[in-house]
Design goal:
Chain lengths: 530, 290
């Protein structure tokens, strides 16, 4: 990044606190390419177990950087031994390896040293100096071996990109949207959101509370929202299952609420640290009874930023729940972004001005179903909220023929207003396409790369990609195409949804459900295998 | 001047005629009028059950939420608008059964709210099942051979965990209860009042049975003695002390650090983070850039 390149970084890790085999993949380019690749040019293994697990990921002509000689195309540096024997502490092994990696990439040592200087400045000159030395050692050792083998040169460029994960973009965007309250219970991969907001509580002015369970989390957020604070919660599938009665409560009380549902493979505890798109239908159908809600699924960190702002605006205007579906891949990956385009988004508040109201009725029947919303204590007007079926004042009703029916209709008519606001899916290369890959959420870049790879295979493929999934927009699928669903789940949930809502017929599906993210190569090979 | 008329609700009361809940409602009214709180300054929060209907019968702000979930909703309200007097009105099933976890953790947080539990030792709205406070051996509609698990003593739990205000009242002693509610609302920090409320429709014992056993704590009772309070709370058999069992000097109230650092106003009044400020935050994610 400091050298002026766009970087995409993706990590996969085991569900344990220390140890195990974890990997961190970095993709470097002149322009942002925010998707993982299946194969690597360089594989750096910090231990032997890593070599056994990850060597298959290395291209045949790729170069291995490891401590023991095991193949021809490799650079061998015993990081651990050097760190211990020459530097007196094995902790420097990582910096030695990093120095070697930087040499292989053809980046100047000074760039790495500047980064080290910044990163370790708080730890004092001694630590900085030792890491400089370690980096230089690795750099020099690798540089010799690299001469004829490493083709890469990454000279300094002027470009500067943002590097941000989904779980960093989301809390920042929430603060921009006017969020003042988050309550959540820790659950991978959503925990980063409340962690970020809690650490920045004073600067961003968002109150953050770790609840005793997810039921408390959603009810606290609903209470805060009722009392006028824009509020959110964040969880994963299992926690969301506990929250579902609260989703229904927000629907009945017409309390604005934003929920981030970071997906991971289920059922039950599933694969806690892996990725999936398995909760689409669960999110859309969450909550007993019938009431409107919105489900959005951003494609990357920048889109997540924009969609969170949109989520808070929609929730506030339509007095409804908005669920933002992310996943471990989107939450934890670092995306390169040229520009956040803040000018394109704006935060709104739809609280009613109390001076405009004479006789206040919280659930006043209106044409669009949206009633004036005040918060308790805002004025002398009293604000009611009721989980029972209620009348316009918010009192329990047993008047079935008139009040109950009118209230059901009032809530559901809001869905019509929402339907006008949802955006149609993104279309790419549809005109020429024989086959169309349909996907949603965080797989956008992988699908686009699959379209490109398949083009080189001589297959004309296009893409339709959804980021706004409920209510579904008015959309006409072009006729005469072979539709394929591409999803990180086993049962093609989007395809089932589109079949039931649009009557769309599918030719096949690419379903990945091993806990790893979709990649262009994966989609291409599954498509071609068919 | 706030009078009882300001709190008169038009909603039709659904309690059984003669239910001691009417006494509790009267005590609420009396306390709030005595404190000269205007209805718009008060927010009642409840879950589900007969007690949880009380907010409909007292004209003020209210949130009648889900079974067991009144306390977390109240916590959110308490943070979002600290100027409100937030009172949870709940029952033994709502608060000690379905919502027990929330109650325990609320004590740890010490929010500046009042929690009043109508404890009738039964699930009345669902027609007579055992509640967490039903005495062992008493019969209920599911427990036809008698309840064989031990009742929960939430007063003791609250005292052990240093809830800053713990009291017990009796729905049959309205004046005394009015005094407790007044003190509870005035107390800074979490105040908890368990109210003995005989169920005249499904209960095992008539109101008179409770009247014979209830007694007021004496004026010489030492409020801040945790061990003595625990003894009182655990007094079993035929004795039911009512009054403030335990009160300690207020410790830090929930969200007070945030209030000092950010705002003590309703959060709805905070201005938005503008684009310029957000661009500044985002620039921290741009290595080497401005």
């Amino acid at each position: 990044m400091a050298q002026g390149y766009a970087v995409f970084a993706w990590q996969e890790y085991e569900s344990r606190i220390r140890g195990g085999q974890n990997s961190y993949s970095i993709r470097i380019g002149e322009k942002p390419q925010n998707a993982p690749l299946l194969e690597a040019d360089i594989l750096l293994c910090l231990n032997e177990g890593a070599l056994a697990k990850y060597e298959p990921l290395l291209k045949r002509d790729g170069i291995l950087l490891a401590q023991k000689e095991v193949r021809e195309r490799m650079i061998t540096i015993p990081f651990g031994k050097i760190a211990k024997e020459e530097m007196g502490n094995k902790v420097y092994a990582n910096t030695i390896a990093l120095g070697a990696l930087v040499a292989m990439l053809g980046i100047e040592l000074e760039t790495l040293q500047a980064v080290i200087g910044q990163r370790f400045s708080k730890k004092g000159d001694e630590v900085v100096g030792a890491n400089y030395a370690a980096a230089e050692k690795g750099y020099t050792l690798a540089d010799k071996g690299c001469k004829d083998m490493c083709p890469w040169r990454l000279p300094k460029r002027r470009e500067r990109y943002y590097l941000i994960t989904g779980n960093q973009a989301i809390p920042l965007a929430a603060a921009f949207a006017g969020c003042r309250f988050i309550s959540a219970y820790p659950m991978t991969p959503s925990t980063g959101i409340i962690t970020f907001l809690a650490r920045e509580e004073d600067r961003l002015g968002v109150f953050a509370e770790q609840a005793e369970d997810e039921i408390a989390a959603i009810n606290m957020a609903i209470g805060a929202s009722y009392a006028g604070a824009k509020a959110m919660t964040a969880t994963s599938g299992g926690g969301f299952a506990l929250m579902v009665e609260g989703v229904s409560l927000a629907g009945m009380t017409e309390t604005p609420l934003v929920i981030v549902l970071g997906q991971r493979p289920g059922p039950a505890t599933g694969l806690p640290t892996r990725t999936a798109q398995g909760d689409l239908l669960f999110a859309i159908n969450a909550g007993h009874g019938e009431f409107p809600k919105v489900v959005l699924a951003p494609s990357d960190a920048k889109d997540a930023f924009h969609k969170i702002v949109r989520a808070f605006n929609l929730a506030d205007e339509h007095q409804t729940t908005v669920i933002l579906l992310t996943d471990q891949f989107l939450a934890d990956s670092s995306f390169s972004i040229e520009d956040f385009e803040l000018d394109e988004i704006e935060a709104f508040s739809y609280l009613t001005d109390s001076s405009e109201i004479e006789n206040y009725k919280r659930y006043q029947l209106t044409d669009n179903g949206i009633s004036p919303r005040l918060y308790p204590g805002q004025s002398e007007h009293l604000v009611a909220a009721d989980s029972d079926e209620h009348d316009e004042q918010g009192h329990i009703t047993e008047d079935l023929a008139e009040t109950a029916v009118a209230m059901v209709q009032k809530r559901l008519v809001k869905l019509k207003g929402l339907q006008k606001e949802v955006k149609p899916p993104e279309e790419f290369a549809l005109d020429e396409a024989d086959a169309v890959l349909i996907g949603w959420g965080s797989s956008r870049q992988a699908i686009l790369e699959a379209v490109d790879l398949l083009k080189h295979d001589g297959v004309k493929v296009g893409m339709i990609h959804f980021t706004e999934l409920w209510p579904l927009p008015d959309f006409g699928f072009p006729e005469g195409k072979k539709y394929w669903s591409v999803e990180s789940n086993a049962t093609a949930q989007l395809a089932r949804l589109l079949r039931s809502e649009y009557g769309l017929v599918f030719e096949g599906m690419v379903a990945r459900y091993d806990g790893l993210p979709l990649t262009g190569q994966y989609i291409r090979s599954r498509f071609n295998d068919h | 001047m706030i009078t009882e008329r300001d709190y008169e609700s038009e909603a039709e009361i659904q309690w059984c005629p003669g239910c001691p809940n009417f006494g509790i409602l009267q005590a609420f009214k009396g306390a709030l009028v005595g404190l000269q709180k205007a209805p718009h300054e008060v927010c009642l929060v409840s879950g589900i059950g007969q007690a949880a209907k009380l907010p409909h019968y007292l004209k003020c702000n209210f949130f009648n939420g889900l079974h067991g979930r009144a306390i977390p909703v109240a916590l959110g309200i308490h943070v979002a608008n600290p100027q409100l007097t937030t009172i949870v009105v709940t029952g033994d099933g709502d608060c000690y059964g379905e919502g027990g976890n929330h109650f325990i953790h609320a004590i740890r947080r010490n929010p500046d709210i009042t929690v009043v539990v109508h404890n009738n030792e039964i699930y009345a709205l669902t027609k007579g099942q055992a509640s967490p406070t039903t005495r062992q051996g008493e019969k209920r509609t599911i427990q036809v051979k008698g309840v064989d698990i031990a009742p929960l003593n939430m007063l003791s739990i609250a005292i052990i965990h240093d809830c800053t205000f713990v009291a017990r009242g009796f729905a049959g002693d309205i004046d005394h209860l009015k005094g407790l509610v007044t003190e509870a609302v005035n107390h800074t920090g979490m105040s908890y009042v368990d109210v003995i409320q005989p169920c005249i429709t499904w209960g095992t014992h008539p109101v008179s049975w409770y009247k014979e056993r209830v007694y007021r704590l004496g004026e010489d009772y030492e409020l801040s003695d945790q061990e003595a309070a625990l003894k009182k709370a655990m007094e079993g058999g035929d004795k039911m002390p009512i009054g403030i069992l335990y009160r300690t000097s207020p410790r830090e109230v929930f969200a007070s650090r945030f209030r000092k650092a950010v705002t003590d106003q309703p959060l709805a009044k905070l201005p938005l983070t503008g684009r310029e400020k957000m661009a500044g935050f985002l620039s921290e994610f741009r290595p080497g850039g401005q």
